[in-house]
């Protein structure tokens, strides 16, 4: 008789939104120190505030990661009867 392995709860670090938020935040911090030209794409229109666009994107990705992780945890609890 084979024993079924219990399904583990979702791990936050497996959520790609958190990884994207971290990468965008690091790039934004790097550009804050080294200047916006370091993260500007070749041929990109020059606009001020590129660092803040990256930081805002990082915040949006973090919130998205938090929401999806909460939803995954709730689904896991409801499906597997964990409290």
List its salient traits.
about 80 residues; mainly alpha; 2 helices
Notes on the protein architecture:
The protein is mainly alpha-helical and 83 residues long. The chain has 2 helices and no strands. The chain has helices at residues 16-34, 50-80. Helix 1 (16-34) packs antiparallel against helix 2. The radius of gyration is 19 Å and the shape is elongated. The relative contact order is 0.19.
SSE sequence, one letter per element: HH
Inertia-based shape: elongated
Largest sheet: none
Radius of gyration: 19 Å
| Helix proportion range | 55-70%
Content-based structural category:
mainly alpha
What is the β-strand count?
A: 0
Terminal Cα separation, in Å? 28 Å
Beta-strand percent range: under 5%
Unreliable spans: none
Number of helices: 2
